[in-house]
Amino acid sequence: MRKSMGMMVASAALLLMMLAACQPVQDTRSSVSAAREATFYVGPELVDCVGVAPMKCMLVRENLNNEYQFFYSEIEGFTFEPGYTYELRVRIEPVANAPADASSLKYTLVEMVSKELAEEGAMESATLEGPTWQLTAVSDGSGALVDAPAGVEATALFEEGRVGGSGGCNRYGASYILDGASLTIMPGPMTMMACPEPQMTVEQQFMAALAATAAYQIDGDQLALLNADGQTVATFVVQVPASLTGVEWVAINYNNGREAVVSILLDTEVTAIFGEDGRLTGSAGCNNYMTSFTVDGEAISIEPAATTRKMCAEDVMQQESEYLAALLMAETFNIQGDRLELRTKDGALVALYRMRE
Question: Distance between CA 148 and CA 153 in Å, rounded?
């Protein structure tokens, strides 16, 4: 009897341990941080920017010694009036369970410290060389300009006779000759990864626009490339890169390991949060994952991930397995505006993310 009782106790203990092991790891994204107040210095103009779609953004900085950053959200209780600079005290609160296309932070005006008429010429135009330009529209080949679709990022960085960036899917390089307002671009090497539509179509149109460029115009933070007939073949806005850490990245595409970049399945969300402590956490589409990473300049290395043990539909589990395997291939990262690219050393795309506001 005593022996049977001992076996029953041991079996019950084992069952409890198994049940505990099956419980998912708590999703750290659901924890709500304390609200804080900050000082915002707001520039005198609204500028074109690209969030989920092309939009108008305020220019904001929290330190007068820093450059203005695009501000994609709204400040409740504040009405912007062009031509003035502002100093504001703003309350910043996290929003629990914010929708994927909405900001995870709420901004509320506490006090308008000052409102001053801006000096003429306070917002200077950008220069061709130096900033990273993000494509906002491109010629479709018939002469019509078509807005760049949401989620497709094509960029151009002009420096010392070389221009490069993302074509919307692949990395490209080219050389250019600049003579006053005249600009000639000679296409160069490019990676050859296949991506889903509309990325491939936008990339082809973008490469054709670069090859057709004969001149350029800049107005504020907007760039237009013109062909030999003076027609605009592509337009851009200046990008302000986000930080790798301290934000949540939502995956748009990933490398499935079969030399193809595919879109994230509908009704699933894959995320990545790079912590200041070197930890990488997020959702792989079904389970939460956790691993570590190291960075050195633009180089990045990601270790194999541990996950919770939830079971989902077969295609979701396949996506999860392929995504986590892709992370191990990442050797470089690049941030352009609100987009993060992880790539192999040879330039093949590992994963493309957008920043959750």
Answer: 8
Q: What digits encode the pLDDT tens for the residues 263-303?
A: 999 999 999 999 989 999 999 999 999 999 999 988 999 99
* Alpha carbons 98 and 100: distance in angstroms, whole number: 6
Taking the C-alpha atoms of residue 352 and residue 335, their distance in angstroms, rounded to an integer, is 10
* Closest to 293 (Cα-Cα) out of 256, 261, 331, 321: 331
If you compute the radius of gyration of the chain from its CA atoms, what whole number of angstroms results?
A: 24
Q: Quote the pLDDT of residue 20.
A: 39
Query: CA–CA separation, 135 vs 149, rounded Å?
Result: 10
| Structure token digits, residue 1 | 């009897």
pLDDT tens by residue, 105-118: 899 999 999 999 88
Distance CA 185, CA 166 (A): 16
pLDDT for 49 equals 66
How far is Cα 167 from Cα 55, in angstroms, rounded to an integer?
21
Output the CA–CA distances (angstroms, integers) from residue 73 to 32, 53, 58, 227, 312, in the order listed: 19, 13, 9, 36, 34
CB 350 within 8 A of CB 330: yes
Nearest CA-CA partner of 142 in 7, 233, 75: 233
pLDDT band at residue 123 under the 50/70/90 scheme? low
